[in-house]
Design brief:
With about 20 residues, the chain is mainly α. It has one helix at about 5-19.
C-alpha cells in the first residue's frame, strides 16, 4: 500500500509550508 508513503509526503510538505 502506498498510503504510508503518501501520508509521509503530505506531512513533509506541511512542515515545509509551515517553515
Amino acid at each position: 500500500m502506498q498510503v504510508e508513503e503518501l501520508g509521509k509526503a503530505k506531512r513533509k510538505r506541511n512542515a515545509s509550508k509551515e517553515e
